[in-house]
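Q: Convert this sequence to structure tokens.
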Amino acid sequence: MGDILHALPAVTALRKAHPAWHIGWAVEPRWRALLTAEAGEAEGRRSVQRPLVDQIHFVPTKAWSKRPLTKVTWDGILATRRELRASDYDAVLDLQGSIRSAVLSRMTGCHRTIGDSQPWEGPARFLYTERIETIGAHVIEKAMELASDVAGDLLMPEQPWLPVDAGAEVWCDHIVPKSGGRPVVLLNPGAGWGAKCWPAERYGLVARELTKAGARVMVNAGPGEDALAARVVAYSGGMAETVVCTLPQLISLTRRIALMIGGDTGPLHLACALGKPVVGIYGPTDPHRNGPYGSEFRVLRSPVSVRDHSRKPDTEAGLLTIQPEAVLQAAWDVAVIADGARSEGLQ
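A:
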């Protein structure tokens, strides 16, 4: 999810600079809501909104990796290869920089496969026909440099165009009306692995103080995170509320929040993509590379934290040094929670 969101500003800029170009995107099916949505009824038929791309290639690489030697997997790979080649692309950009994405770029049969000279997974570079020496620190900046090379112009990051799902908007109307009510703060306590997760009890304390200041605090429960969200709500004294939603619903909900607080994870990057204020609580990942970007934000990271992607299960030591008071102060710095309310610390 984060990789797609980090690529969106570059693709949006490419689309704005060259609206007549045919742009396709290869993506895991579970992230389709970031690129396409049911936009409602039009002339008696369901209409689809796809603001950025002309074509989407759904590539279930995660499912393939679980059953790599089966006939179903190999049939799927060959069908994907035929589909990609039939599209006859003039250039392919690998904006992820993984071996998997680089292999997929070669499956297109395109004579131009373009990637970073120093990709996230080093061996991927040998699969590119063109390697771009990027100088940006953040992955969004690197993606912009790759897109600029294809465009032939110096492109600047654009706020991404994300689709609007009609059904998700109806759901959200019942959860968070578009007008009136208290400002909504969305907490996202989960992350890809345990070392990136700030403690639930501290999220609960933050939720309690924000509620006292006049906010409505919602805790996003991603897949398998119901128990984690419930702990945050319990530590808030029941002042926060859990929200369980699909990806289209999360997009709709995020459009209506006043502030997002979370670690280095997809929902935080989604809030940035939608221009919402965010507070990022970082530990073993480097915010200079993949921190908040493109919106008003504050990042909290301890100087003792070191970059480590080994997916350890326990909260990283540096992350544990960040206290709720610091998170609250960052929240006051980036967002108006309620009628100028501010806090000098925990009450």
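Residues 166-334 form a domain with the Rossmann fold fold (CATH 3.40.50.2000).
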